[in-house]
Amino acid sequence: MMQNPVSYHSQISKVLDNINKVIIGKEEVTTLSIVALLAEGHVLLEDVPGVGKTMLVRTLAKSLDCEFKRIQFTPDLLPSDVTGVSIYNPKEQVFEFRNGPIMGDIVLADEVNRTSPKTQSSLLEAMEEGSVTVDGQTVDLQKPFFVMATQNPIEYEGTYPLPEAQLDRFLIKLKMGYPSEEQELQMLEATAKKHPIESIEAVMHKDELLQLQEQVGEVFIDKMVQNYIVQLVKGTRNHKAIYLGASPRASIALMKAAKAYAFIHDRDYVIPDDVKYLAPYVLSHRIILKPEAKFEGIDTTSLVSELLAKLTVPMRKEYS
Amino acid sequence: MLESKQIPKESIVFSILLYLCGFLLFWEWLRPLEVISDTGNMTLLVLYAGFCFFLSILRVSAWISVPLKIAGLLFILDGLFMQEIITTRQWLMVFQTQLQYNTEMIMEQQWTHLTPFFRSLLFLILLWLMSYLVHYWFVIARRVFLFILLTFIYITVLDTFTAYQADEAIVRTFIVSMFTLALSNFSMQMDKESLKPAYGNWFVSTVIPIIIILPLVTILGYFAPKAEPQWPDPVPFITSTADYAGFGEGGSSTTQKVGYGEDDSNLGGSFIQDNTTVFEVEASQSHYWRIESKDRYTGKGWERSTELAYQTQPNGNIDLDMHTEQVDTIQQYASVHYTSDANFSKVVYPYGINNVSNGTHLNYLLDQETGIIEVEGPEQQEGSVYFDLTYQYPSFSLNQLEAAGGDYPAPIEDLYLQLPNSLPDRVVDLAEEITAEDQTRYDKVKTVESYFDHNGFTYQSEDIAVPGRREDYVDQFLFDTQVGYCDNFSTSMVVMLRSLDIPARWVKGFTGGQIVNNNPNGVSSYYNTYQVTNNNAHSWVEVYFPGVGWVPFEPTVGFSNNADFYQEADADPDSNDEQDAEEEVNAEEEEESEQEHQEDEQALGSEASQDGAALWNGYLLVGLTLGLVIIAVVLFFARYRLLTLLFIKRYKHFNDERSLDKAYHFLLRVLQHKGIKRKQGQTIREYARQVDAFFDSNQMTQLTGYYERMIYRSDATLHDHEKILELWKNLLRRAWS
């Protein structure tokens, strides 16, 4: 079977190649992370420890010449540990604001569901608003601002599940998954002497990234495709196995992601395929199943796929 | 047994069954040939077809099957046409000569000169080819519907427009078709789903439903009420119109001139009105003029079973015993003047004849059995011939007839109960059915006589059917056409009576004719002159009643029996008079009505031809509709192919959005039609990959790329026109290759 080679935007393709040197066999996750980055959204990575979540974020930051920050969430972490605190400067006799770890370009919020809801919300507010408010003082976060939160699977002990309202703030939810045997072997080989992250260089500047983000906003999306998104999201609200469907925010998120995905593929317009590909990543964490559906072992990802399979794809212009 | 071995085995069973059904359907194509053409040796042809089919299903290599088929072909030709011993020099010579001659004839387009040998050869080759075609349709392509449809059309058309009766054929075809469709559907399902049914499952899910549904539907269909034919049987019309259509009768003309003729062995067909006067009669009343009777019905017409045994009748005293002494008679006189147009020399006479004379010395010869009176004289006078007739005109007592019973004399039984073995049972059944409630013989005779009038049979002289090779004249008239003239009615009545063991015979002669001049001699009004024309030629029925003799009956619709019948009145004498008067009135009325009828008859002629034209228009319409339907069906099945040609011709370049849009969607339809189905929810890109996987190319993805850009980018500027067109055309061609 012959297939068209997938064409990528030239700059993005460099970044991807760079990351794939370090993160072996996770092209899909890498691509989706960049989709979120370009769409100015954030990623929730759900997986067990040790599969390379941190490494992914670090590599991404290094490739893009961005400042990398990491917050390790623990049950005793306070909101001020995230956002930063105002400290009294006796010399100047003023309160000075000390930046918290959130003031970075690319932030890794590790094990975000292990901390208290209060601390979680401080992070999530920053993600949504793009600013933090400490002691009545609002500080804008720099751009780019990209959070990659990881969480242990919720069934684990000592977790505070993220409330739905906050899950909604993540553009994409991903699973890393274990590498294949072959990939793991390759990984071992690559790290035998020195970790490959040491050897990679930045392939893009922060400013270029900002430019690309702007360009993503200009990607064209036809009414037909917008309608396709709306119909899909609407479908989640009417499904009999779903207790709570996706919000209009989800529609917007899906559109943004689709634009970014189209952009990565060097297209200046969105096609239904983009939407179809991204929908499970964008929608599944925004849907709450009915308890009986859960007992039956239905998961949200397969539900979204089911909806997609039934939804007619727009493929004909209406000529008036 | 291994699972993997079971599946091919089943599909082979399916193929064989399907192919067998194909053969049975094909057989239905061959069956009518016997009826509608002069094809003989049908069994051999069917055997050869079966042989070819058998070899095809064995899938032996061409190296074996082709020589075998050729051998079979030569063997049949040898058996049918060649005296020489096969494979000898002479045989080869004859064979070569045949081929050479026929090739020349073909070159000269002398189609009618082709020899039966060569025609048979061609036909056998056709059978051979058909075995391939059916094999392809049924076993390889598994497209059985078209052949089934064609078979039905073929059979119904033949049934409608030729003498072929497809009553059984349609039922057989229906059963085989249902079975075939069930099989092919199931085997296609199996292919599609690649099902691996366990043997039991397979049996339960196919065979049992077929076994239940098929007989059920068949029985239901067989007994369900069916609509009457919506238009009259066109066969008589076609056979009468197409004199030389060559439906196996050697192109013999079926239209005759009306009048008296000797040969009645092939009845049927239309006749032309002929108003030529044959003889004129001076008589006191209108009689039927008898000439002869015939005793043996052949299924097609009438013949004599005995040789004519003429006996000289001295002094013209005719010794013809038709009635016993018990029949009342009245002595009457009449004279008959033959015109020069009379084409026969027999004497026409009324019932009760006992003397013929004409002044000159003539010998009169009588055949007792048929009642033929021939004249033998020194010289036949040219021009007008006349005879004076003296006769005892009988008057039959109804009471006598009612009472007539007992056994028939042996000679009567021998001659006048004869029926051909080929007479269909339903004729007998009908006769028994309609007379079931009648007590006496006479009642039965009257019931049969009036059956035609009471059941909508119509009198008509044009567009009358001739029975086909396997048809019975009476059966055809009673059950199929129900339209005819005197021969149909009288023959049917005789045959029906004989099937009831009532002796009857078929009589020919003339009806009474038209009164031209009252009181011809200016002396007395007792005698009238009747003019009898060829149009008055008639046939009727005589029935034998023990103790009475032969009594005439008139079954033909529109004619009335002008023999005298009377009821013996044993009540008061007044009523007798009244009745007599009544009867006289009736007789007059009847006479009038008959004259009217004869006038009508002539009018009917032109009307009938108008009817014919209307009928012809009707067939034209039906034919046209049928043609249109066939064209529509063909167009429907070939629509994508035709549209492809049209589209390819139309789009020389895609200069606007809309044309690409149309062209692309047409391509999608063609691809779907060719079996690459697009699932719901599939994007065109996904579908394009599926198509490309199918064709092992990337053209669809490329083309789809352009199309996507056009619709999802709203980008009307189409670059690469030529590339797009080329991709599109290539894909269409690939879809059809």
Overview in brief:
Chain A: Residues 236-306 form the ChlI/MoxR AAA lid domain. The complex is a heterodimer of chains A (320) and B (737). With 320 residues, chain A is α/β, with parallel strands linked by helices.
Structure description:
The complex is a heterodimer of chains A (320) and B (737). Chain A has helices spanning 10-22, 27-38, 53-63, 79-83, 117-129, 164-167, 181-191, 196-199, 206-217, 223-238, 248-264, 272-283, 291-295, 300-310; strands at residues 43-46, 68-72, 84-89, 94-99, 106-110, 131-134, 137-140, 146-151, 172-174, 242-244, 288-289. By secondary structure, chain A is of the alpha/beta class. Chain A folds into 2 domains: 10-212, P-loop containing nucleotide triphosphate hydrolases (Rossmann fold, 3-Layer(aba) Sandwich); 219-310, Helicase, Ruva Protein, domain 3. In chain A, the strands form 4 sheets. In chain A, strands 2-5-8-1-9 form a 5-stranded parallel beta sheet. Chain A has a two-stranded antiparallel ribbon with strand order 3-4. A two-stranded antiparallel ribbon of chain A has the order 6-7. Chain A is globular, with a radius of gyration of 21 Å. The two termini of chain A are 39 Å apart. Mean pLDDT of chain A is 84; it is low at 1-5. By secondary structure, chain B is α+β, with helices and mostly antiparallel strands. Chain B folds into 3 domains: 3-223, no CATH class; 256-614, Roll (C8orf32 fold); 639-736, no CATH class. Chain B is built from 21 helices and 20 strands. In chain B, helix 1 (3-36) runs antiparallel to helix 7, helix 13 runs antiparallel to helix 15 (486-499) and helix 17 (639-650) runs antiparallel to helix 18 (657-673). Chain B starts with a helix and ends with a helix. Chain A binds chain B through residues 1-4, 220, 222, 224-225, 268-273, 276, 308-313, 315-317, 319, and chain B through 657-658, 661, 665, 679-686, 689, 692-693, 696-698, 701-702, 705, 708-709, 711-715. Chain B: It comes from Paraliobacillus quinghaiensis. Chain B: It holds the Pfam family Transglut_core. Chain B: This is Transglutaminase-like domain-containing protein. Chain B: Residues 567-602 have a biased composition (Acidic residues).
